[in-house]
Fold each of these.
Amino acid sequence: MDDETWPGLGVGDTVVSAEKIATRVAELGAEITSDYAGKAPLIITVLKGGFIFTADLVREIALPVEIEFMALSSYGNETRSSGSVQILKDVDVDIAGRDVIVVEDIVDTGLTLRYLLDLLGARQPASMEICSLFLREEAGTEAPDLRYVGFRLPPVFIIGYGLDVAGRYRNLPHVAAFDPSV
Ligand code: IMP
Ligand code: MG
């Protein structure tokens, strides 16, 4: 679908086009393929925002990956993270001894990820790296090190390609600024 013709209210300026996302996701997949040669990494996707990114990313990884899903909830208003996190769904497998790659949609303050890494790290994976499609340029100092980052973002709230406002806009094929005035 053409970026310009998407009909949803609130869809502001394009921040990253669908084409640019596809190019960058292919690069990340190639990087992971070469970094994990000879291994079978366990991808752990953070729902819901990471589902579209993961679906595209894993098809760019030429390795026998396994895919698990976690769902976390952080409370607060719609556009800021409060730092209080709950597990809504855990992975279904033992991650001890596995090469884990945590796939996130966006790291903002890093609080969600920090919580997740503490939790998963205690289960003794062989290795654990993070792949986030977006990193807020002004991410908090508590943001963990990210091995793979798709794009660095200015302080604008974005929607699309898995990212939502109040559950909507995840199906937008590109990433746009959320603009309630549009
Ligand atoms: P953090 O804990 O502050 O790093 O927040 C990370 C989570 O907040 C992400 O996984 C998203 O679910 C959500 N989030 C942060 N910024 C945005 C945004 O610009 N658009 C949509 N969701 C966002
Ligand atoms: Mg999220």
Note: The pocket of inosinic acid (ligand 1) is lined by residues 49, 74, 81, 104-113, 157-158, 163 (CB under 6 Å).
Amino acid sequence: MEVFRELEPLREALRAARAEGRDIALVPTMGALHAGHISLVEAARRPGSSVVASIFVNPRQFGASEDLSRYPRKEVSDLAMLADAGCDIVWLPPVEVMYPAGFATNVSVAGVSERLDGAARPGHFDGVATVVTKLFNQVQPTRAYFGEKDFQQLAVIRAMARDLDLTRPHVDAIIGVPTVREADGLAMSSRNRYLSDVQRAAAAALPRAMQAAVAAIEGGAEVAATLAALEAELLAAGFASVDYAALADAASLAPLAALGEAPARLLVAARIGGTRLIDNMAVNAAA
Ligand code: AMP
């Protein structure tokens, strides 16, 4: 496994891989890797492909009051996990390589970026769209892998790739990978490390209450009442606040007052102590 911290040597290695007929798959991450990230690397691995994982804690997607400075950094164990998973290349740019002095461009996807996490975290998805555009241009993958854990992020990237014609020739496919969960259902996240033992135990209420809400909505329960009950259950379980609990169209993330024919998604962001957890689940229309 090769590790690059400068753009030109990375591009040289990618040119060499392409010259050998290998296609390039990209897995963007912010490091502090867990089994969820590794599932993306495993999905990306194919005979004849080179897998590039990027590790970059992107300052532009953190708000002023967010956890950029305390975000976990685990470079040594991340590299060991990526090597074990069969990753070929790690792209580890320092901030000044990604954003040299004078960097002035912003990529912003209207609509899908503005709701839910976009409303709760102003500027967050602009930061994501900007860095992912750069990663696509730097690596020029034919496939790029993103977790459904960050479902709105996946929707923003799909919209951006379509709008900016990033899907050809550079990226043929944006591939969403199902969320990997702990034994008690909590979605794996680098931020779970912030939780105390008591908070960690309480956090299992999030997937449990969401699953109950999915079943209720699929069974015909009224959406607004179900979402209110979900919120109350989280607060009773020890969550400090709920940023949002919403049923949304799975493609546009526009809010849905009732389940229709189109695929829908239940999305929740809630805080436990100082930690903000997000999760989402598919909601299927009645057969
Ligand atoms: P992050 O390092 O949090 O930016 O995540 C990097 C990528 O891994 C994103 O595409 C995430 O959606 C994905 N990811 C994070 N957690 C999980 C998980 N539990 N299951 C699957 N994918 C995940």
Note: The pocket of adenosine monophosphate is lined by residues 29-30, 36-37, 39-40, 146-147, 149-150, 177, 179-180, 187-190 (CB under 6 Å).
